[in-house]
Amino acid sequence: METTILIVEDEEKIARFLELELKHEGYQVLKAVSGREGLSIAESGQADLVVLDVMLPELNGFEVLRRLRKTSDVPVIMLTARDEVMDKVAGLDGGADDYMTKPFAIEELLARIRLIFKKRAGTVSKEENIFAFGALEMNLARHEVRYGSDVVELTPREFDLLKVLLENKNIVVSRDTLTEKVCGYDYLGETNVIDVYVRYLRSKLDDVYNVKIIQTVRGVGYCIRE
Ligand code: CA
Hints:
Structural class: alpha/beta
Mean pLDDT: 87
Low-confidence stretches: none
Order of helices and strands: EHEHEHEHEHEEEEHEHHHEE
Bound molecules: calcium ion
Strand content: 15-25%
Radius of gyration: 20 Å
Distance between the termini: 36 Å
């Protein structure tokens, strides 16, 4: 069965771009250019997921979501303008499944859409089995790391290092802690072992996808943060 995604977005260029990318991924696409139109299509149950912009004519995205939630639990990803932090809060409180800040990387949106479908399908049993950071996704149950749709091959130690950093998102983890968690508490080898693994991870992620995932905190350790 084909999966249908509804795009509610009045900005023609963005809507067209999303439509092309989603179709390329094999989704069927419906489009609405106003809140009222989006709400009526979403309420009709034709869409399996809704990508909903906040700034819309007639009804804004929050109002659409609020009304839609009275009759439907279809997954909704809200699109908000940069730095509209209140929008994030209101969006999640209002029953959105996720939100994206414009401008966003299409790979990140696609990754979040896949994740929502996996959760809904029950192929992901527990939410805590998956760590996501941007388009990066770590599935513990499958012991698998993906960037967008690519599977990234990691050695066990690279995997463990990335896991510790993702588990502690936005927290700086010291080299000592990382060494203990990745190499064991009785590790007696080179003291710069973590720096070496960070370098390997960067060569497999940052260099390939032109992103900066692991940050160095000088004299302390490493961190993955938003
Ligand atoms: Ca808009």
